[in-house]
Design brief:
Blueprint (H helix, E strand, L loop, with lengths): L12 H6 L5 E6 L6 E9 L2 E7 L13 H27 L2
Antiparallel strand pairs: 1-2, 2-3
């Protein structure tokens, strides 16, 4: 006969983790003022990884590459040639 405690054993942290399939996310908060620090994901027993870190101030950006100007020049230089090639292909394959 089995002892009553044999079936009531506690699962270890690693055993509990093996059965878990859905990722767990949580918001970490500052101990000082309770403000949110970021979103973290539990990746294993006792292990967490940051997913998104919150900052106190907004980022500042500057223009590195003027996309609108480069695209405009490229279209104006290549559009006539591309159109003529597409028209020639359409006429050649027309039924």
């Amino acid at each position: 006969m089995r002892s009553p405690t044999a079936s009531c054993r506690r699962a270890t942290a690693s055993a509990r983790w093996r059965g878990r399939r859905k990722p767990i996310f949580f918001v970490a908060r500052s101990k000082r003022d309770g403000s949110p620090l970021g979103i973290y994901q539990v990746v294993g027993p006792g292990r967490v990884e940051p997913v998104m870190i919150f900052s106190k101030k907004a980022p500042t950006y500057y223009v590195r590459f003027n996309f609108a100007h480069v695209v405009g020049e490229s279209v104006s230089c290549n559009s006539a040639k591309a159109f003529n090639e597409a028209l020639a292909r359409a006429i050649a394959t027309a039924k």
